[in-house]
Amino acid sequence: MGLLIKGGEIVTADARFHGDIWIESETISAMGHDLPAPAGAEVIDATGKLVFPGFIDPHVHIHLPFMATFAKDTHATASKAALIGGTTTFIEMCCPSREEDALEGYNTWKQKAAGNSACDYAFHMAVTRWDEKTEAQLRQIVADGTTSFKIFLAYKNFFGVTDEEMFNTLKLGAELGVITTAHCENAELVGQLQQLFLAQGKTGPEWHEPSRPEAVEAEGTARFATFLEQTGAAGYVVHLSCAPALRAAVEAKLRGVKLHVESVLPHFLLDKTYAERAGVEGMKHVMSPPLRDKRNLAVLWSALEAGLIDTVGTDHCPFDVDQKLLGAKAFTQIPNGIPGIEDRVNLMYTYGVNRGSLDLHRFVDALSTQAAKLFGLFPRKGTIAVGSDADIVVYDTAYRGTISATTQHTNNDYNGFEGFAIEGRPSVVTVRGKVQVRDGTFVGEAGRGKMLRRATSREVSHAG
Ligand code: URP
Ligand code: ZN
Ligand code: ZN
Known about the structure:
By secondary structure, the protein is an alpha/beta fold. It folds into two domains: 3-52 and 391-399 and 423-462, Urease, subunit C, domain 1 (Roll), CATH 2.30.40.10; 54-374, TIM Barrel. It has 15 helices and 19 strands. Strands 1, 2, 3, 4, 5, 16, 17, 18 and 19 form a nine-stranded mixed β-sheet that branches. It has an eight-stranded parallel β-sheet with strand order 6-9-10-11-12-13-14-15. Strands 7-8 form a two-stranded antiparallel ribbon. A hairpin with a 2-residue loop joins strand 17 and strand 18. Helix 4 (163-176) packs across helix 7 (214-231) and helix 7 (214-231) runs parallel beside helix 8. One zinc ion is lined by residues 183, 238-239, 288.
């Protein structure tokens, strides 16, 4: 058998050429020109199309008990939506609350995903408290191939950690060669500002952004960087949303701190006026850090092009309209999150590459290769090379469409990007050599996805 992808223009983070890809037993076994199709092989004609490595979403929430409810997707719905949009691997935040046992939480997340995901997946393990069991449990989880941690400087008393807990987590991360991802907002300031606004009768979604101002995110980013510096750990700021936080991150990078930066789809395309819309329309656009003043969008695009922002994720986090209405009386009760797993690749291609704001190689790098490198998956994932997993996206740049909740595959009744035009979409998507998507339709094997065991940075440097 085998699969031959013929005549496309192959684009990776650092190369672009016309050629054929021959796939056997889940991996790429040859690349070249005019490769012959052996008898029985399936042939995909990619003439006139771009051929990308499968995209990796480094930040999604699927199973998520949060703010008195649960995010809407299952691993089955989210993974199909991901694949239709060209994402062949996602890394989910495994987020037991402060009240839960970390190892039990980890096993719950693994069980939810096992056998249900159509694409490959991994986890970032959230550390939401530090007690006498935590260190041994985290060592066990890392030995299981989950080689990145997550901490929240926000969400006091739920997911949030104290500075002492952050220190302990980073110290262990440095010892094990495990990168720690962090949601960087000052929880105390957010809590105090929220109470001030509510006491003044300021209850609508338009007060969400003022309650978590840019300075609060910049402080969290700078503090995280200082703790990285003092522990020698590697870190990754998730969903960085604004210029002051970026400045704090870049200053740390310039000092030599091992700090990497992710920004997410909503912060490139939506500004705070979306959350200022009346009623539930505003609530649909409540996430944290919040959608920001418009002047930040151009800053994020330039920083992405320049490589100061390393990766683009989604922070996919679907809550439906009924759930958003839990916050009808107080913006502090609106479940935080905007979905995007299905739309990241097409929207970043359209509004980045096609509008001239994002180089095509940087697009591949930021949406695939960097995530693979930072999270111990490269070169198995994140590139097209002999020996790599055959996760391939044959991309049709001639496609024209419009984002709509009525046609999406994620399990939600709204789309935060409703009405946005898209110029391009995947025409074929493979996961380890199996065609899972054709032209917007899932045609594959529902439970094909595997949990990926990832390397620590120590294992990578010893292997290299
Ligand atoms: O608003 C957001 N970002 N919801 C998901 C939880 C988180 O902070 O990532
Ligand atoms: Zn977050
Ligand atoms: Zn998140």
